Each structure stands twice: as structure tokens, then as C-alpha cells.
Inverse folding.
């Protein structure tokens, strides 16, 4: 199995590349997607991707307030605790998760994403 070949796909003439936990040096694809478990600062690699997905933080499970900068109070502990960011032409979406670390959630439903206008 060739790892370079296995992460490329095509949809008609559209070349798609999907990477996992190790970002590519360059993609050369028309559409490049990075899937991460833990959110990371993608500033140094955002120019390589059109779309990045991450999870793990579960939105903090308890959200007392939210604004364009993130979900609070957990944002103070985990700076990337927000739902949606844009770095240049790269959209970064962080999931609220489908499971729970603790058996409680407040104002933070599982797997819910609000689309920006």
C-alpha cells in the first residue's frame, strides 16, 4: 500500500487530497483536507489546505457564554475551543464531539455546528 497514493482521490477532474495527523509538505491537489483529532494551531500550515477538521475538546461540554472568539469558560484553558475559524483561504472547523467526558452538557449539544452566514 502506497501512503502517497492512498491519500489522493479524484471526482471528475477535481483532485482531492485528505491527510490525517501528519500534514503534507505540499498537496498539489485542487481540494486539500486535513483531519485532526486534537485541535492545533494551523497558522503555519493553513496555506496548504482548504478545509481542516478537528475534535477532542467537546466544546468544553459546559458553555456559559459564546462569542466569535470561542466557547467560554473552557476557552481560557484551551485557546482553540471554538467552532469555526478562517486562516486565509482555509476553513477550520472544530467539532463539539459526539461523546462526553463527563455525563453532563450545558448549552453545548453534541455534534452541533452552526453554519456561518
Amino acid at each position: 500500500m502506497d501512503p502517497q497514493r492512498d491519500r489522493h482521490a479524484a471526482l471528475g477532474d477535481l483532485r482531492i487530497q485528505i491527510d490525517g495527523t501528519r500534514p503534507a509538505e505540499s498537496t498539489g491537489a485542487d481540494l486539500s483536507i486535513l483531519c485532526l483529532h486534537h485541535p492545533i494551531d494551523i497558522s503555519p500550515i493553513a496555506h496548504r489546505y482548504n478545509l481542516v477538521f478537528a475534535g477532542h475538546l467537546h466544546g468544553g461540554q459546559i458553555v456559559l457564554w459564546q462569542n466569535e472568539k470561542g466557547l467560554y469558560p473552557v476557552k481560557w484553558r484551551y485557546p482553540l475551543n471554538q467552532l469555526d475559524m478562517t486562516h486565509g483561504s482555509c476553513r477550520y472547523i472544530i467539532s463539539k464531539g459526539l461523546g462526553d467526558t463527563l455525563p453532563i452538557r450545558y448549552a453545548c449539544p453534541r455534534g452541533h455546528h452552526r453554519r456561518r452566514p
Remarks:
- Residues 97 and 111 are 5 Å apart (CA to CA).
